[in-house]
Amino acid sequence: MAIKRPKPEEIVVKLRRVAALMGQGVPRIDANRQISVTEQTYDRWKKYGGMGAEQLKELKRLQKENERLRRAVSDLTLDKLILKEAASGNF
Q: Which residues does UniProt call coiled coil (predicted)?
């Protein structure tokens, strides 16, 4: 069974809902239960609290691109080390 990941818009809406409930005096744990989110997920999402949906989409896109570029640099660095080792004759 595939895990359904919420879209950035859904994350922003849920965070605003929790903030509204907490403003009404509902404890955070109960507010998280009402939006069907665990404490760990809420803590992970907290950093997106002040963002709009478009900003969150852009952040996610940039994080993905950053991960892809890091992987590319890592692969190239490994290739460079292998070639350097082969060129020195220590294989």
A: 52-79
pTM over 0.85: no
Q: With beta carbons less than 8 A apart as the criterion, state whether 31 and 18 touch.
A: yes
Residues 60, 8: contact at Cβ < 8 Å? yes
| Ramachandran assignment for 88, one of left (phi > 0), alpha (psi -120 to 50 degrees), beta (any other) | alpha
Q: Sort 48 into a burial class: Cβ within 10 Å, 0-12 / 13-18 / 19+.
A: middle
Please report, in tens digits, the pLDDT of each residue of the chain (91 residues total). 677 888 888 888 898 899 999 999 999 999 999 998 999 999 988 887 777 878 888 888 999 999 999 999 999 999 999 899 888 876 5
